[in-house]
Design goal:
The complex is a heterodimer of chains A (236) and B (350). Chain A is mostly helical and 236 residues long. Chain A has a domain at 4-148. Helix content of chain A is 63%, strand content 2%. Chain A is flat. Chain B has 2 domains: 16-178, no CATH class; 211-331, no CATH class. Chain B has 17 helices and no strands. In chain B, helix 1 (17-39) runs antiparallel to helix 12. The chains are: A mainly alpha (236), B mainly alpha (350). Chain A binds chain B through residues 182-187, 189, 191, 195, and chain B through 96, 108, 130, 133-136, 138.
């Protein structure tokens, strides 16, 4: 048996991954994943906001009246987003300008609101923290993988401009795989994001199916015979 | 004397998928020959590249899906897609253009949706649109028709030259050959009127004949297909009439800023689109009335995108947009069965 923590971790990273299974937060996911650095930047911002908001919502869950819970959640989330926005302005200004509107828009990211309402408002602080942290790690992983796919296909290089996030030491992280690469604009443009996400979801489903096939099939149990009359539905 | 008793129908037609596709391939031959004649061996090389890669990707997809490869390759649908893409891309486009295009056409536009008969969009046009958006430079480098390129007579360059252009892909060589297509010239006029362009521009004066002949070749193939009852006249006629009508009005109002209807129909890919692309039975509307609406939409969109859009020819985008609208057109143009009342349409319809 898995412990509760393990279940929470597995849920966030795989079984209930916000990007691949719940399909939440698609707007920023599709819009900013045209390079690894953009994806990582937004992923980290979301990580801080989601973890922080889950923690805070859980902390105040007993004081929050049921009827006005959503406005309260929004205010908590907005506070964290504002903090992150100011921090990014201070320390990674260029990345902040590149991500532009998508930083303030983290407030409206359905993953954060969803976790606050569905999980953090009903669970203890520790569980909420773990849930928030691993949900956002799962979200960030998808962002970064999609960003890497699109950057690689679109420009033939990886990790461009990583110094925007990590400072001077990252300037030579840029890997060019093909020198004479004709830029595949489709991958960088929004349709490429849809196609890339579709392929990632297909890959996840394929892996799930393979795992399921490998497990022994449980013996079919006899269906219980129902007694008494049963109405048969005849209309469409 | 003994008679074999069979129930009707006694007369059958051989309109199988593969039979229809073979007729389409046959009807494309004049167009491909005309392209080769006016634009060089490049077209035939592109046909070979697209065919080889298209059939390979189709076989790969069928193998992945666990379907019988030889049976599905034998329906020639991948072949037709490959031919359509090969005649749409510039003859001197680099090798990988055709391969990337077929990869997208077969795997993403066709097999992902479930293979032959299930694709909502025309696969060749999806590939063309994707290539045009991704590689605008390579996809707009049409070489000039070779009628132009020599006063000493009409000769197309040796096949080795085309091969090196495609496989080695030197861009300098490409620049020497390529130029704006007539439709491009007529749109980006730098303040001149269309009449002035027709008088001064070399491509238009000498090259327009090549484009007209090319359109005639596609037209011939299309008429043959209508004669063979591969498709009905509704779609092509409605495209051509709509485009001709709309452009005639515009030309009548302002002849110095709009292209005349005849050249709208013959200078670009209109004929290819009307007879070979829009008539795809899978992705177009299904009833005859629906086909007329479908064709009107394509004709109108071609005019709009050509006149105010940014891309060299409007055919691919027009067809894709109308493919998207085809299910709705089908819903509103459902034919009435004999003896029944007219179907109630709209949200209240059943």
């Amino acid at each position: 048996m898995q412990s509760e923590t393990q279940t929470l971790i597995k849920n966030g990273l795989w079984t209930n991954n916000p990007a691949l299974v719940q399909l939440l937060g698609l707007c920023p996911l599709l819009a900013v994943t045209n390079s690894v650095v953009n994806a990582l930047g937004l992923g980290l911002a979301t990580l801080v906001v989601l973890t922080g908001s889950n923690l805070t919502v859980s902390l105040f869950r007993k004081l929050t009246p049921e009827t006005v819970r959503l406005p309260i959640f929004v205010m908590i989330i907005a506070a964290f987003v504002t903090a992150i926005e100011l921090l990014m302005q201070a320390f990674t200004y260029e990345l902040y300008t590149i991500l532009g509107i998508f930083i303030p828009l983290i407030v409206t990211n359905c993953v954060i609101m969803g976790r606050a309402d569905a999980f953090a408002s009903r669970n203890a602080i520790k569980e909420s923290f773990i849930d928030g942290f691993f949900m956002s790690i799962g979200f960030m992983l998808v962002l970064v993988i999609l960003g890497a796919m699109r950057e690689l296909l679109g420009t033939g290089a990886l990790f461009a401009n990583m110094d925007l996030l990590f400072g001077e030491m990252a300037t030579n992280w840029h890997i060019t795989l093909a020198d004479d690469y004709p830029n595949f604009l489709f991958a960088i443009l929004p349709p490429g994001a849809f196609l890339g996400l579709g392929l990632l979801i297909a890959l996840k489903n394929l892996i799930d199916q393979r795992i399921k096939e490998r497990q022994p099939i449980p013996e079919p149990t006899e269906a219980p015979v129902s007694t008494g009359s049963k109405r048969v539905r005849v209309t469409g | 004397m003994s008679l074999i008793r069979m129930s009707s129908p006694h007369v059958t037609r051989s309109n199988t998928s593969s039979g229809v596709m073979q007729l389409v391939i046959l009807a494309m031959i004049p167009g491909i020959l005309a392209l080769t004649l006016f634009f060089g061996w490049g077209t035939l090389i592109q046909v070979a590249i697209c065919l080889a890669s298209g059939l390979a990707f189709e076989a790969l997809a069928l193998k992945m899906r666990g379907l019988p490869i030889s049976r599905y390759l034998g329906d020639y649908s991948a072949t037709v897609t490959a031919l359509l893409l090969a005649v749409s891309i510039p003859p001197s486009a680099p090798l990988w253009i055709g391969i990337v295009g077929m990869f997208v056409a077969i795997l993403f536009a066709k097999q992902v949706y479930g293979g032959i008969g299930n694709n909502p969009f025309n696969p060749a046009m999806v590939a063309y649109a994707l290539l045009l958006v991704s590689f605008p430079v390579q996809m707009t480098s049409w070489n000039l028709p070779y009628v132009l390129s020599g006063s000493e007579g009409w000769s197309i360059p040796a096949i080795s030259e085309s091969l090196s252009l495609i496989f080695a892909g030197s861009s300098q060589m490409m620049d020497a050959y390529t130029g704006a297509t007539p439709l491009d010239i007529l749109r980006n006029r730098d303040g001149f009127t269309t009449e002035e362009m027709w008088r001064s521009n070399q491509t238009l004066i000498e090259g327009a004949a090549a484009y007209h002949a090319l359109s005639a070749a596609w037209f011939m193939g299309g008429i043959y297909l209508i004669y063979k009852k591969v498709f009905t006249w509704h779609t092509p006629v409605s495209i051509l009439v709509t485009l001709g009508f709309v452009s005639a009005i515009a030309y009548g109002v302002d002849p110095s800023n709009f292209v005349d209807p005849f050249n709208h129909l013959t200078l670009g890919a209109t004929m290819l689109a009307a007879f070979f692309i829009a008539t795809d039975p899978v992705s177009s509307a299904t009833s005859n009335r629906g086909r007329i609406v479908f064709g009107m939409g394509i004709g109108l969109l071609i005019f709009i995108i050509r006149t105010w859009g940014n891309y060299p020819d409007a055919v691919a985008f027009s067809v894709l947009l109308m493919n998207l609208a085809a299910p709705m057109i089908d819903h509103y143009t459902q034919p009435r069965s004999y003896g029944h009342k007219r179907a109630r349409l709209g949200p209240k319809g059943e």
